[in-house]
Amino acid sequence: MSHSISRTSTAKDQRVAPMKTPSSSLFGRWLGPERMQATGVKVAIIILFIWGWATIDNFASSSNLHAIMYSVAAIGIAAVGMAFITLSGNLFMLSMAATAALSTIIFASFLYLGLVPALLIVALVGLIIGLVQGVVVGLGGVNPIIATIAVASIVMGAGALYSGGLTIVGKGDASWLGVGQLGVFPNQLLLFLVLAIAAEFVVQRTRFGRELRLIGLNRTTATLAGIRVGRTLVLSFVIAGLAAAIAGSLFASQAAQGNLKLAAGLDFDAIAAVLVGGVSIRGGHGKIIDAAFGALFLAIVSNILLVKGLSFEIQLMVKGIVVIVAVILGALAVGLRKS
Amino acid sequence: MHTETILQVTGLRKTYGGIVALDNVDFELRAGEIHGLCGENGAGKSTLVKILGGLVAPSEGEIKVAGDTLRPGKRTDPRLIAIVHQELSIIPALSVLDNVMMGDERVGSIYIRSKFAADVRRQVDALGLEHIDIHQPASELSLAEQQLIEIARCVLRGARVLILDEPTATLADSEIHRVFVAVRWLQKQGTTVVFISHRLNEVFELTDRISVFRNGKHVLTTETAGLTSDELVRAMIGRDVARRVVDQALPDATGMPRLRLERFAIPGKVQPLNLSVPGGQIIGFVGQLGSGADLLVEALSGVRPHTGMVTLDNEEVRIRTPKQAIEKGIAYVPEDRAGKGVFLETTVAMNVTASILDRLTAFGLLRPKAEADAARALAVRFAIDPRRLTSTVSQLSGGNQQKVAIAKAAALEPRLLILNEPTRGVDIGARAEIYEQLREMAGHGLTIIFFSTDFEEVLELADRVVTIFRGQVINDRGVADVSMSSILNDIIHGPEKIARTA
Amino acid sequence: MTTFTASARLRLVGGTGGALRLGLLIVAVVLFSLLVDNFGTPRNAYALFQSFALLGLVTLGLALTMLVGEFDLSVGSMVAVGGLITLKVGGADHLLLGMLAAAAFAIVVGLFNALVFSWLRLSSLVITVGSMIALGGFAYWLADGRVINTDNFDAGSLLDDSMLGIFSLRSLLTIAAFVAAFGLLKYTRLGRNILATGSRAAAAKASGVSTTAVYVVVFVLSALCASLAGSLLSISLATASATMGNNLLLQAASAAIIGGIALSGGIGGVGGVLVGVLILTALNNGLGLLGASAASMLFANGLVLLVVVLLDGRVGQWLKKLRRPAPLKSF
User: In the A/C pair of chains, how many CB contacts fall below 8 A?
Assistant: First the structure.
C-alpha cells in the first residue's frame, strides 16, 4: 500500500516543520517538554534522598524511613484520587479533607464489625460523596471548585453533627492497617502502591482512562467525537471520593481513633503532590503515577524539614511555595512545548 | 454631487510571504458618498480594511485621508476612519450609554454618565432607536440594535469615513431597513460610508458608487445607477470557471435513499425543507453567512437543535446530541479543527482512535494491538505518514491536521459523513488527497454532506449542489448544471433576480 | 419623550433577580422575627451587624474579583494573616501600625495574584489556591502554634461600642466600604472597565482598556478587604489565630452568588452583594438563636452554596431565555 503514501505527501511533510523527535524515543519519553517535570521530580527524589542520607543523622534509619513510608501512604492515595479529577480538566476536588475526616469517624464507628466491613462501609460513603459531586459537576455543569467547597462543608458539618466534635474510639482491631507490616514495609504503604499502580493501569489501559484523558485535553472535541463525557466525569469523582475515604481510614487506623482533625490539610497535600508531580492543571497531560511520585517527593521534603527541626508551620508554607513554583514551571514548560 | 475626494489610496500593495493580498491598488472615496465594496472572500477587501484601520501596515503604497497621509501600521484616528466589524465589540453587560462612550477620551477617571446622556440620547435617536433606554444593558438589544449602537459610537466620536463590514449579514429583513435608514442619515450628516456586503441587492439599493475587488486587484469602480447585476457578478468572479467534467453518472437514485429529511428546519434560521439523498452521493451546501447553510450541517450532526423528521436508511432517527448522531452512524468533522476537530496536544494515533474506542476494547481494557492496527490502517488510508502516528497533532501542517480530523470521523465507518468547511486553511496538495479519499469513500457507498464557502471546492467535490439563501433552499442541482456564477447568483439574490437594465 | 420608568425602576432594584433577592431577605427577616425569640431585638440586630461587618467586607473584595470573571480563593487565609500581622506588629500600642503592615502585605499578595494570573494566563482559581495554601501556612507560622493576644482592649471597644443601638464602628466601616465600592463601580471609569473586562475582556481591550490594570486593582482590593476585615476582627476580639478565616470563603462565595454576582463575570452589583451578605448573616444568626451548633451551621452554609450555585447555572440560563428581546415592532 506504500504507493498511496505518495511522494507528494512525504515531500509536503518535509516542507513543514522538521519532524520532531517522535515521543517514543527515550529522549522524548523522559526529557521532552511533556515529561520534563515528571522526570525532574523523580531525579529530585533521588537527589534529596541521597542528600538526606549523607547529611542528616538517622535519616536512613529504620524508624525514619518508616515515618516517611507512613506519611506518604495516605496522602499518596488521596493524590492519586485527585489526579483523576485534574487529568479530566476539573482542576481540583477541595472536599478530600472533609471526606477523609468523615471517613475517620465512620471507620472508628463501624470498626466493631471488623476491619474489612468497616473499610467497605467507609468506601461506600466515599463513593456516595464522590457521586454527588460527580453529578453536580459532571452532569450539572457547576464549577468544580465551588461545588467541592460546598460539599466539603456539608460533609464536615455532617461529620461534626454525628461525632459531636468528639473523638470516636473504634472498638475493634485495625492494627493490620494501622501498624501492620509485610516484611519491612507497612501495609499502608503496600496498599498505596497497589492502588497507585492499579490507578495508573486504569488510566493508561482502559477505555475509561483514555476517555478521561481526552476529555481533559479538549472537552468540546471529546463531546463531538462521541465520548461519554458525563459518565466519565461522574466516575472520576467517585474514584476521588473513594480515595479520600480510604485515606481517612488509614489515618484512623494509625491513630486508632476517629477524629475530624486527623485529615487536616489533606486537600492541600494532595493538590501539592499532583502539581509537583507534573500533572498539568489544564488537564489531559500527565500520568497518575506522577501524582504518586509527587506525594513521595513532598513526603521526603516534609521529613527533611521535620528532622531538621523546622516547624509544622514552615512545612505548610514550603508546600504552598512549592505549589506555586510547580505551577509556574509547568506553565513555562507549556510555553516550551509550543515553541 | 459628490466631487471632493476624502480618501485617496495610491499604489497599495500587501504581501504575506509569497501571497499577494493586494496588488497595486488605487482607490478613491468621494466625500459624502455611500460607496459599496464588493468581492469574493479572499479578494482583498478585508486586507484593505485592515490597512485603512491601521491594524496592518502595507508593503507599499500611500493613503491620504482629508489631505493627511496616514502613518503605515499605526492605528488610524477613529475620527478619520472608523470601522464597524462583523464581530461586534459590544460589551453585553454594560449599558447602551457605556457602550457608545467606550473608548471616548472625553470619559475621565471620574465618569458621570449624566454628562453624556443628552448627546448619546440624541445620537441614538437619530439612528432610529428612540424606543430603547440608553441605560439598559446592551445584552438586551437585538443584533441590529447592537449594530446601530456600534455605529452610534463611531459617529459620536466624529468619524469622517465609516466602514461597515457586512452590517446586514445576520439581520432579519425588518432590521436591515433600520440599518439603511441609519446609513442614509449618516450621509446627510456628511459622513462618507463604505458599505461592504455580499448582498448585491442591498448594495444596489443603498450606494452611489460601487467598487469591485478580485484577486487582490481593484477591477472596477462605477456609478451604481448604470450598473447591472450581471455585470457586477461578472466583475466579481471574472471568467466563469470551467465546469468540472463529470464522467461518472450520479449514483443509482432508485431504491432506498440513504438520508431523507422531511420538514427539517432550524427555528428562526432555516425554513422547513425536504431532501432525499442516495447512498454514495456527495452534496455540497452553499450559502452566505447568515443563510443557515452552515447551521444545517451542524443540525444534522446533532450539534444544533432542529425540528422535523430525519430518516436514515428507512429508519427514523433522533439526533439531538453528537453522541446520538454517532450512534446512528453520522460522523461530523467541524470547521474549527484546532478547537473542535482534533486533540491538538496528543498523538495522531490517540486522535484517530478516539471515536472508536468501544471497538478496541475488551472487558473495559483497550487492546493495544487492535488500537495500533486501527491507527495504522487509518493513517495509511488517509495518506498520513505512519511514522507520524506518534507525533503530536499540533506539530502537523494544517492539511495533515485536517486529515487526522477526517480519519477520526471516518474510523466510525459511518453511513453519513458531514464536513463543515472540509479544507479551510489546507494547502493544495493535502486538499487533493482529501478529495480523493472522500470520493473513494463515497464510491464505497458513504453519503457525504458538506458545507463550504469555497465555490471551487464545491464544484470540485460535490455531485450535487444545494444553494441556500436566508434559510431557504434556492436550487438543488447536479454539479453539471451549476457554475460559479449560478451559485453566486443563488446565494446573494435568492429566489428573485433583480432585473436591471443597462 | 418615551417613558421607560417601569424598567428603570426594576433596574434600580437589580432587575428581576434583585427583586427576588430583596424579597427573600425581607421574608427571611420577617420569618425569623416571628418564629425565633430574640431575633427582632436591637441587641440581636447589633450582633447581626457585627457578623455583617466581617462577612460583608470579605465578600465585597471577593465579589470584585468575581465581577471580572475570576475568583480569589485566598480571602479566607488572608483574613487570618491580616489579623495575625496586625497583632504581632502592633502589639498593644501600635495597632494602627499593625493594620498598615497587614495592609501592605495584602497589597503585595494581591499584586502577586494579579500579575502571575495575567502572566501565566491560568485560571485565577489555580493561582489563588496556591496563595491560599501559602497564606494558610504563613498564618500557622505567625501564630506559632498558639493564639496571639493583645492587651489593648480599648481599641476593641472603640471598634465595637454600639452606635445607634445596632451599629458599631466596625459595621459602619464595612458599610462605608460598600458605599465606596458602589461609587467606584458606578461613577468611575475604572469601575466601568472592571465590568467591561468581566463581560467581554477582548472587546474591552480592543477599546483601549488595560485589562492588566483592572486585574491588579481587583485582586489588590480583594486582598486588602480581607486583610482589613482580619485586622478589625482581631482588634475587636483582642486575639488572633490561624483559624480565624475558616468558613469565611464558603460564606463569602455563597453571599456573593446569592447577591447576584455571576461566576462568569460582568454581572452583578454592590447592592446585590449587600443583600446577599445580609441574607446569609440573617440565616446564620437565626440558626444560632435556634440553638444550632456550629456544625449544623456549617452544614447549612454548604447546602445553601450548593443549591445556590446549581440554580445560578440552571435558573440563570432559564432567566436569560426569558429576557431575550421581544420581536421587533414593524417600522
Answer: 147
Whether chain C has a CB inside 8 Å of the CB on B118: the answer is no
Q: CB distance A328–C313 less than 8 Å?
A: no
The alpha carbon of residue C82 is apart from the nearest alpha carbon of chain B, in Å, by 30
Nearest CA in chain B to C68: B93
B437 interface with A at CB cutoff 8 Å: no
Q: Please state, in angstroms and rounded to a whole number, the distance separating the CA atoms of residues B92 and C267.
A: 10
Residue B136 near chain C (CB below 8 Å):
yes
Confidence of residue A4 (pLDDT cuts 50, 70, 90): very low
Q: Examine the pLDDT at A3 and tell me if it is beyond 80.
A: no
Lowest mean pLDDT of A241-255, B430-444, C125-139, name the range. C125-139
Is the pLDDT at B162 greater than 90, yes or no?
Answer: yes
Q: HSE of A207 in the Cβ direction (CA atoms, 13 Å)?
A: 19
Which residues of chain C are within 8 Å of residue B177 when distances are taken between CB atoms? 331
Q: Distances from the Cα of A17 to the Cαs of A11, A339, B7, in angstroms?
A: 12, 11, 43
CA–CA distance, B236 with B42 (Å, rounded to integer):
11
Question: Residue A117 corresponds to which amino acid?
Answer: P
CA closest to B331 among chain A residues: A225
What's the Cα-to-Cα distance from C236 to each of C54, C83, C94, C170, C231, rounded to whole Å? 11, 10, 15, 9, 8
Cβ-defined contact of C134 to A150 (cutoff 8 Å): no
Q: Packing angle between helix C124-143 and helix A266-277, nearest 10 degrees? A: 130
- Nearest one of B314, B306, B234 to B268, comparing CA atoms: B306
Is the pLDDT confidence value at A7 over 50? Answer: no
Which three cell numbers mark A109?
A: 464507628
Q: How far is B341 from B419, CA to CA, in rounded Å?
A: 10
The pLDDT of residue C44 is above 60: yes
Asked whether the beta carbons of B335 and B296 are under 8 A apart, the reply is no
* Whether residue B224 has pLDDT greater than 80: yes
Question: Cell numbers of B180, please?
Answer: 439603511
CB distance from C191 to chain B under 8 Å? yes
DSSP code string of C240-286: E-TTTTTTHHHHHHHHHHHTT--TTSS---HHHHHHHHHHHHHHHHH
- CA dist B180 and B170 (Å) reads 14
What value does the mean pLDDT take over residues A288-292?
A: 94
What is the bridge-based pairing of β-strands B81-84 and B161-165?
Answer: parallel
Residue B246's pLDDT band (boundaries 50, 70, 90)? low
Mean local confidence (pLDDT), B217-238: 84
A39 vs A128: which has the higher pLDDT: A128
Over residues B421-442, the mean pLDDT reads 87
pLDDT of residue B228 exceeding 60, the answer is yes
Strand ranges, E, within chain A: 181-182, 185-186
Those chains having 3 or more beta-carbon pairs within 8 angstroms of chain B are A, C
Q: How sure is the predictor about C264, in pLDDT bands with cuts at 50, 70 and 90? A: confident
Q: How far is CA B383 from CA A12, A17, B389, B458, C35, in A?
A: 11, 18, 12, 22, 76
- pLDDT recorded at residue B254: 55
Mean pLDDT of chain C: 85
Cα angle: C202, vertex C208, C214; to 5 degrees: 75
**How distant is the Cα of A223 from the closest Cα of chain B, in angstroms?**
7
User: Do B214 and B237 form a contact (C-beta atoms < 8 A)?
Assistant: yes
Residue B425 neighbours by CB under 8 Å, 6+ apart: B398, B402
What is the pLDDT, as a whole number, of residue A198? Answer: 96
Distance CA C234, CA C244 (A): 9
Q: What is the mean pLDDT of residues C315-325?
A: 58
**Looking at chain B, which residue has its C-alpha nearest residue C15?**
B136
With CA atoms as reference, the chain A residue closest to C264 would be: A143
Contact status, residue C260 vs residue C269, Cβ threshold 8 Å: yes
